[in-house]
């Protein structure tokens, strides 16, 4: 026995596994680990207007937190998340449950139609919704025209969060509907049938069987969406290009990070803010996971 | 009761189709109209087929066919990073699961760790890294970072771990099969669903990348379609600029450019939808 285990461990040393993993390891270090460590180091390197950069544990963080643009940008992003997340969860669960209640052809068509906008992402989606919120060309232009300001524009710093939330729902909900609907279909039919035999109506099965069984998806959608939402960059950047100065260039937190790096060449502050953002995302994810017992294996 | 709930359900579906469908239909119809028609025809009216030709002519004629160059850049950046990502991720995920070596758990741990770091947080250090090796404003500054896909490695790892029995690998080894041949002839043929999934994620991620090329590239001729769209709008003032420029790029041309930029993703999505539906019915039958 001992000889076998020692031959095994020497084999582990010369294992061909190394050759299989080596190229990935190079990429992992070059484009994952190294930038992460470098970014962390930079958060402590202070760029001063005169003289050489110096190291400080807290200076960059303090400077970033004092920036008058940060509360506005943070509030914008929080406002966006507060509108977007409930709206999207409501749309996703209402539609998925309705599609599952009676699996008709019309339900299948609806699922397909909600899924297609997911392909229109990034700058194309931003442009599409820039059009959707322009009173002149929008299909709901007649309604938007009642809310335009003096310059004839509907977009402004104030309602921008709402537009992004509607846009995020339109492009994000379809994919989640497919996922949640798939989870609903996977619920054993006997469970529903026995509940119905016991006198449960359609609503009872939704509240007491279906929703509790797909509960973990709520946490999953929230974690992924919060991380995405805090990183908001493409949409406000592209839309503000077309909005003719109606929307601030540092509307979102990530745009502020970018502004530190490019407008001021202050990588220390940019990294410090990026790290703060990461910490908030991870903290929220941990909070949601512990509150919903996301990883608990025992089902009710 | 039954009739009411059925009516409510169908009403919900109609509202959903309007909310999700109308913007897409609008986008499909916009290139058929002139800027003027876009404003004064009903929003979902069809312009004319001739106008599509004129709009396309304007768009593809912009800056001596710049959009072709952007499309070509998108295609070859995406294809190159996809090929490298697959060549690197598939053996790595397989070896981490089936050929453990000293340090393999560390590699796996680092993979999971980098998975949770949002890519946007790494972009600035990546920029400085690329500039220190002189790759800024070259395609490689975009292609190389996109080849790193820890999620893909993890997917392959999970697939190998859960669906590939050790006994098959042992049997092949006894028959004198090399480790590489075992992966190539035995693992890859059965792992295609996982590989297809990784392909899907890498492709969509690379094609849609905006922040990375936005930061790494500063000449118009290197831009991708995603970046080009933004350049098109900002350099012509097509939207919001009052249409004062004499370059014939206005709202219909921008809508067409947006359509062109999402076309490959749309195809991949429609293709993937068939698998999603197939997977669901399979689950339903088992249940």
Write up what this structure looks like.
The complex is a heterodimer of chains A (300) and B (287). With 300 residues, chain A is mainly α. Chain A has 2 domains: 17-57, no CATH class; 69-292, Orthogonal Bundle (MetI-like fold). In chain A, 71% of the residues lie in helices and 1% in strands. Chain A has 14 helices and 2 strands; from the N terminus they run ααββαααααααααααα. Chain A has a two-stranded antiparallel ribbon. In chain A, strand 1 and strand 2 (54-55) form a beta hairpin. In chain A, helix 4 (69-101) runs antiparallel to helix 5. The relative contact order of chain A is 0.12. Chain B has 287 residues and is mainly α. The radius of gyration of chain B is 24 Å and the shape is globular. The relative contact order of chain B is 0.12. Classes of the chains: A mainly alpha (300), B mainly alpha (287).
**Structural category of chain A:** mainly alpha
CATH class of the largest domain in chain A: Mainly Alpha
- Counted beta strands of chain A: 2
Q: What low-confidence regions of chain A span 5 or more consecutive residues with pLDDT below 50?
A: 1-7
Largest sheet of chain A: 2 strands, antiparallel
Shape of chain A: globular
**Which structural category do the helix and sheet elements of chain B fall into?**
mainly alpha
Our estimate of the beta-strand percent of chain A is under 5%
Largest sheet of chain B: none
CATH hierarchy: architecture of the largest domain in chain A: Orthogonal Bundle
Give the N-terminus to C-terminus distance of chain B in angstroms: 29 Å
């Amino acid at each position: 026995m001992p000889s076998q285990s020692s031959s095994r461990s020497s084999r582990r040393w010369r294992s061909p596994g190394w050759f299989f993993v080596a190229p990935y390891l190079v990429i992992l270090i070059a484009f994952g680990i190294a930038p992460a460590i470098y970014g962390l180091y930079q958060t402590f390197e202070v760029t001063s207007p005169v003289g050489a950069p110096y190291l400080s544990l807290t200076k960059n963080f303090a400077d970033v937190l004092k920036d008058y643009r940060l509360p506005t940008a943070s509030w914008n992003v929080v406002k966006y998340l507060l509108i977007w997340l409930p709206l999207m969860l409501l749309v996703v669960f209402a539609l998925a449950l309705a599609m599952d209640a009676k699996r008709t052809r019309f339900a299948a068509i609806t699922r397909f139609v909600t899924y297609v906008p997911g392909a229109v992402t990034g700058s194309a989606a931003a442009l599409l919704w820039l059009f959707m919120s322009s009173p002149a060309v929008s299909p709901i232009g007649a309604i938007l025209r009642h809310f335009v300001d003096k310059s004839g524009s509907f977009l402004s710093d104030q309602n921008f969060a709402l537009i992004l939330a509607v846009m995020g729902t339109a492009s994000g909900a379809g994919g989640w509907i497919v996922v949640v609907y798939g989870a609903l279909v996977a619920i054993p039919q006997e469970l529903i049938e026995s509940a119905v035999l016991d006198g449960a109506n359609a609503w009872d099965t939704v509240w007491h069987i279906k929703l509790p069984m797909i509960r973990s998806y709520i946490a999953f959608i929230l974690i992924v969406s919060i991380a995405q939402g805090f990183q908001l960059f493409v949409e406000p950047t592209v839309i503000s290009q077309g909005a003719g100065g109606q929307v601030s260039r540092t509307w979102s937190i990530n745009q502020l990070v970018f502004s530190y790096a490019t407008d001021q060449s202050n990588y220390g502050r940019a990294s410090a803010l990026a790290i703060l953002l990461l910490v908030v995302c991870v903290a929220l994810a941990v909070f949601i996971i512990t509150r919903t017992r996301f990883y608990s294996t025992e089902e009710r | 009761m039954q009739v009411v709930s059925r009516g409510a359900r169908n009403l919900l579906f109609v509202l959903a189709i309007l909310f999700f469908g109308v913007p897409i239909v609008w986008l499909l119809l916009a290139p058929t109209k002139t800027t003027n028609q876009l404003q004064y025809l009903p929003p979902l009216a069809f312009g004319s087929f001739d106008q599509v030709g004129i709009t396309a002519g304007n768009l593809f004629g912009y800056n001596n066919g710049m959009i072709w160059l952007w499309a070509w850049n998108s295609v070859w950046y995406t294809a190159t990073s996809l090929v490298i990502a697959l060549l690197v991720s598939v053996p790595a995920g397989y070896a981490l699961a089936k050929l453990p070596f000293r340090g393999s758990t560390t590699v796996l741990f680092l993979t999971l760790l980098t998975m949770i770091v949002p890519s946007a947080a790494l972009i600035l250090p990546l920029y400085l890294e690329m500039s220190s090796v002189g790759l800024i404003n070259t395609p490689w500054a975009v292609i190389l970072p996109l080849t790193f896909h820890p999620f893909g490695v993890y997917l392959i790892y999970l697939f190998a771990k859960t669906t590939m029995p050790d006994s098959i690998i042992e049997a092949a080894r006894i028959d004198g099969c090399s480790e590489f041949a075992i992966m190539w002839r035995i693992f890859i043929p059965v792992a295609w669903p996982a590989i297809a999934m990784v392909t899907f994620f890498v492709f969509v991620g690379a094609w849609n990348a905006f922040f990375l090329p936005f930061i790494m590239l500063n000449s118009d001729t290197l831009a991708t379609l995603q970046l080009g769209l933004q350049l098109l709008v900002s350099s012509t003032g097509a939207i919001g600029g009052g249409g004062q420029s004499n370059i014939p790029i206005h709202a219909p041309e921008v809508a067409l450019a947006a359509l062109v930029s999402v076309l490959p993703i749309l195809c991949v999505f429609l293709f993937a939808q068939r698998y999603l539906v197939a997977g669901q019915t399979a689950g339903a039958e088992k249940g």
